[in-house]
Amino acid sequence: MKITDILNNNITVSCELFPPKAGVPLEGAKNVIREIADLKPSFMSVTYGAGGSTRGNTVEIANEIQNVNGVAALAHLTCIGSDATEIGAVLDELKSKNITNVLALRGDVPAEGCATGDYAYANELTEAILRHGDFCVGGACYPEGHPESPSLQADIDSLKRKVDAGCAFLTTQMFFDNHVLYNFMFRLLKSGVDVPVIAGIMPVINAKQIARICSISGTVLPPRFRAIVDRFADNPAAMNQAGIAYATEQIIDLIANGVNHIHIYTMNKPDIAGRIMRNLSEILK
Ligand code: FAD
After folding, report:
1. Burial 52-84 (b: 16+ CB within 10 A, else e)
2. Distance 171 CA to ligand 1 centre (A)
3. Atom from ligand 1 closest to the CA of residue 108
4. pLDDT tens-digit profile of 134-189?
């Protein structure tokens, strides 16, 4: 089923997984998929290693999600450092497994730099995917602006290019202050970007995650969230509980304000996704 059809449902909650590194047996990942599929998410996405470390496994994991566990799969695909032939081969593999939902991404530029490949930006990859076949293509968006963008408006102009190229939905980078998302969505509408936006929620359950999150995404931590980290960082069980409560509250506030599509960055932890889903059980009925 196409993600755009799934997003016609009133409220959706989907989950993201990452694949195991090349050479690591898939058995552990299969258990994680089964446990998350048992939570009945609207769809499950699987990331793609732009650096090459997990590339091969993305198609396998998407196949396991959709064709073994019966949940619609969204396969991520990056273009940085790849040529059209490589990208075409991945798309053919996906097609052969009837996986037609793809999140088109550029990928991060490695610190040491790399050849850009045949497609410089996600809008070019989106066009290439749609030329290749009947895919439903989504893209990434950044409520606080992509770190490389000179301004928020320049970033929205890029998003518009992506949507004009055929991106039918957008999934957000994680954020911890819902007002940032509301403000972003207002600016999107003002710029004529009106595809569904799926809000990406990262449950932060240990203090180590925080420095990494801020360094990769430039995400601002609101004072209410920082207070939780300051108070509970040294108490893993308390941090875990507080992180799940914070993510749950964020989701409830989003849904209450009409943001109906939520994507949980599960970090391959079914118990965390499960606790959040259980906290929302009546809301999702
Ligand atoms: P683009 O949309 O191409 O944008 C990149 C930058 O270039 C932005 O600053 C944009 O404003 C600018 N830009 C865009 N188009 C143009 C243009 N035509 N001319 C000039 N400037 C332009 N990374 C992975 O490696 N694997 C994954 O599976 C993965 N999944 C992700 C999922 C989500 C939901 C998100 C939010 C990010 C994900 N990423 C993943 C990270 C992503 O690859 C990086 O954030 C990357 O730096 C940007 O990718 P993009 O597709 O948003 O790029």
Report:
1. eebbebbbbbbbbbbeebebbbbbbbbbbbbee
2. 11
3. 47
4. 999 999 999 999 999 999 999 999 999 999 999 999 999 999 999 999 999 999 99
